[in-house]
Amino acid sequence: MGKSTMKTQVAIIGGGPSGLLLAQLLHTKGIDSIVLERKTKDYVLRRIRAGVLEQGLVKMLEEAGCADRLHAEGFVHDGTQVSYGDEIFRIDFKARAGASVVVYGQTEVTRDLYAAREAAGGRIVFDVEDVVIHDADGTVPHITYRKGGDVCRIDCDFVAGCDGFHGVSRQTIPLAVRREYEKIYPFGWLGILSETPPVHHELIYATSKRGFALCSMRNDHLSRYYIQCSLSDSPGDWTDAAFWEELKRRIPVDMADSLVTGPSIEKSIAPLRSFVTEPMRWGRLFLCGDAAHIVPPTGAKGLNTAASDVYYLYQGLTAFYRDNTTDGIDTYSAKALGRVWKAERFSWWFSSLLHRYPDQSEFDLKMQIAELEFLRTNEAAQVAMAQNYVGLPY
Ligand code: FAS
Ligand code: PHB
């Protein structure tokens, strides 16, 4: 059994968008990092996840030097559609919030980040096992992990836990230090990808007596659709025909009539949960992204809130190495959590508005319709929704 030791300034656990974006931004400031990823690159790139980017994330990808394809292939959306039954209305992001979003899949963001790291000679170790963070609460942390038959060690100044909800980083913070907040939703999202033209050039967030549906896309000939489904469902329970039939029953009839269906090239179910762990820092360990918080995907805030975490940590670490100040890293957790909780609120509000809950009373249904009517007719309500959707300031 061999042993190897590497040294870096920032050890990053997790080669998803959080870890890769942080590594690339640190690189632009001459700060060295090593990324440890449990899976292979192909496995990471096979995940189908977020589809909507806030301007803040676009700006960071520009600063990281990997936004060219995003600007060439991404779709700028100035608004979204919201429908209930056959009623449909538009939230005008430009008019209500003076901003837009970009539709460009998380898979492509991750692909661009991998390309940028490789071009910069960034160190990424794939297929790692048994990652353990040592002495995070001291001043000289280190990481051990297994790769093949070898036990390896990384000596570092800081550890960024970007290893998602099921990672090791959050668990490294002692339970006595951690406070966790969670809400499990009594339904999931069944999502499919189909090589068909999108039913509308903007997203449609739809609700109906039968439940929620979302019509999204990746480009002009690749559509992404979701329907709310039971937690006891599995993808195999749904034929493509059954999916399309149910989706048609949840969107306005003229949209259902013009919907182009086709075979699913990906089909999966995501459970919905709201989750936050506090604090997001313990000594020299900083949590970023899904390692620290989860939102139901309704508000498209998962990836975009990981981005603001990365921004605050990048600023803090840069100030530490450039100006020898700890103010940025000392305020990281409070700053990141300030924006995290606003994203949690918006995602919870938008999910509560659009989904059918098993135990809903007639009054609850009336409240949902009244809230939708208020959103459809009230400018202030639309401003609030638009400002949250395009992304609150960092
Ligand atoms: P990620 O989970 O993306 O990346 C963490 C990485 O760490 C993974 O590659 C993992 O393999 C690795 N890792 C884990 N443990 C490790 C260990 N011990 N050692 C080394 N590496 C380890 N957000 C939206 O905005 N819209 C959506 O539609 C949407 N859909 C989603 C569907 C699913 C099924 C899931 C799980 C999430 C979805 N999200 C969505 C949220 C998602 O986009 C996340 O917010 C985003 O992936 C966060 O990125 P990371 O923080 O990098 O975490
Ligand atoms: C997607 O395109 O996958 C998508 C878009 C918006 C959401 C969730 C998912 O709110």
Structural description of this entry:
- This protein is of the alpha/beta class and 394 residues long.
- It folds into two domains: 3-75 and 101-182 and 273-350, 3-Layer(bba) Sandwich (FAD/NAD(P)-binding domain), CATH 3.50.50.60; 185-272 and 358-390, D-Amino Acid Oxidase, Chain A, domain 2 (2-Layer Sandwich).
- It is built from 14 helices and 21 strands.
- It has helices at 17-28, 41-45, 55-63, 68-73, 93-97, 106-119, 169-172, 240-248, 253-258, 302-323, 327-330, 332-354, 362-377, 379-390; strands spanning 3-7, 10-13, 33-36, 52-53, 75-77, 79-84, 87-92, 101-103, 123-125, 129-134, 142-147, 150-155, 158-161, 179-194, 204-207, 213-219, 222-229, 264-278, 281-282, 285-287, 293-294.
- The strands form four sheets. The protein has an eight-stranded mixed β-sheet with strand order 7-6-15-16-17-14-18-21, with helices on both faces.
- Helix 1 runs parallel beside helix 10, helix 10 packs antiparallel against helix 12 (332-354) and helix 13 (362-377) packs across helix 14 (379-390).
- It is globular, with a radius of gyration of 21 Å.
- Arabino-flavin-adenine dinucleotide (FAS) binds next to helix 1 and helix 10.
- P-hydroxybenzoic acid is lined by residues 50-52, 203, 214, 216, 224, 297-300.
Short description:
37% of the residues lie in helices and 29% in strands. It has 394 residues and is α/β, with parallel strands linked by helices. It has two domains: 233 residues, FAD/NAD(P)-binding domain; 121 residues, D-Amino Acid Oxidase, subunit A, domain 2 (D-Amino Acid Oxidase, Chain A, domain 2), CATH 3.30.9.10.
